[in-house]
Write a structure and sequence with these properties.
Layout: E1 2-6, E2 16-19, E3 29-39, H1 41-49, E4 57-58, E5 63-70, E6 82-85, E7 98-102, E8 106-108, H2 115-118, H3 122-135, E9 147-151, H4 156-168, E10 172-176, H5 180-189, E11 193-195, H6 201-208, E12 214-217, H7 221-231, E13 237-240, E14 258-261, H8 266-270, H9 277-291, E15 298-302, H10 307-319, E16 325-329
Parallel strand pairs: 9-10, 9-12, 10-11, 12-13, 13-14, 15-16
Antiparallel strand pairs: 1-2, 1-4, 3-5, 3-7, 3-16, 5-6, 6-8
Helix pairs in contact: 3-4, 3-9, 6-7
């Protein structure tokens, strides 16, 4: 089958069309005919630095498509079902005609979105959901009279995190944005307040009269760390998703802060007992999309997955200026 992969770590032009075997389906697997994918920062990081273990590596994690085959122990899906999911970092990716994925991390595609649009939701929705309810240990409806600061609010995770926080908790949401277009976007997503992460965050929040109990550090955490420690409430909660070279964790001690890593691949990597929690939350997200409670975060869309389109999408990710999500159709 056709796929797009790379044979040596490097720039975007290392991506090329390749021929690989159709995936073998394990007992709990679905074989999905991929109809839409999205591009995430993790794709770019892996392509640039991770050498393939074999002849080539196929990237891509988000996907939406149609179930073409089911494993012997699959109970929740049948051939022909329309699905969406965020994949498993330890397995071959979704930039291919067919993809094998464990049914426990697969949700039913929102009926109101086509495959390409639906592919923009899973990875960021899982990340945001796990931040709110696993890392921060919030309950639905909780957080009244408290606030959440989202650093990097216009990115893929920030865009859906703002919406989930407003829809499912009582938190007031403050998002950071540094351009007029990103400020407009985070307000569209539902942010109550917007501050500029290029300026003095602590001073801006003090001017708003806000002392966040929760901080979602989605980008440049090492740069913003001193400000986060300064502005957060005592016994506050910090969750981060990026890879800072170093953090002065001792600085969190005087306020007795909690620091959490969020990595949405953990459940599938370790096949945790609650691995199917991702299926449940994806189904909730799909229902909220279909009900109009959540909106799509897609801003850049290509109709087909071609080498040229995927290379261009990687370059856009590297620019650091993508708002929301980028999606492409299938091969």
């Amino acid at each position: 089958m056709k796929a797009i992969g790379y044979s040596a770590a490097g720039p975007a032009d290392t991506l090329d069309m390749i021929e690989i075997d159709r995936p073998e389906v394990g007992p709990r697997d679905l074989l999905v005919a991929v109809k839409g994918i999205s591009v995430n920062p993790v794709d770019v990081k892996l392509r640039a630095a991770a050498q393939p273990e074999g002849a080539a590596r196929v990237l891509g994690f988000d996907a939406a498509g149609v179930v073409a085959e089911v494993g012997a122990s699959v109970t929740g899906f049948k051939i022909g079902d329309e699905v969406f999911y965020a994949g498993d970092v330890t397995r071959a990716g979704t930039n291919a005609e067919f993809h094998a994925v464990d049914e426990r991390i697969v949700g039913r595609k929102p009926a109101s979105l086509d495959f390409t649009e639906a592919a923009g939701l899973p990875l960021t929705s899982i990340t945001a959901w796990e931040m709110l309810f696993d890392a921060f240990r919030l309950t639905e409806g909780g957080g009244a009279e408290q606030s959440l600061l989202v650093i990097g609010g216009a990115g893929g995770v920030g865009s859906i995190l703002i919406q989930l926080a407003k829809a499912l908790t009582g938190l007031s949401v403050i998002a950071t944005a540094s351009r007029h277009e990103t400020e407009d976007w985070v307000r569209k997503m539902g942010a109550d307040h917007v501050v500029d992460h290029r300026g003095d965050l602590a001073a801006q929040l003090a001017e708003l009269g806000q002392t966040p109990s929760y901080v979602a550090a989605l980008t440049a955490t090492d740069q913003h760390w001193p400000a986060i420690i300064d502005l957060i409430a005592p016994r506050g909660q910090i969750a981060l998703i990026d890879d800072p070279e170093a953090l002065d964790i001792k600085a969190a001690k005087p306020k007795a802060l909690s620091v959490h890593w969020e990595f949405m691949f953990t459940r599938s990597m370790f096949e945790t007992d609650d691995m199917d929690a991702q299926q449940d939350l994806l189904n909730r997200v799909a229902a909220m999309i279909d009900a109009g409670t959540l909106q799509s975060t897609v801003t850049e869309r290509g109709e087909a997955l071609t080498v040229e389109a995927l290379r261009a999408a990687h370059l856009r990710q590297e620019s650091g200026r993508v708002i929301g999500k980028q999606v492409l159709g299938g091969l």
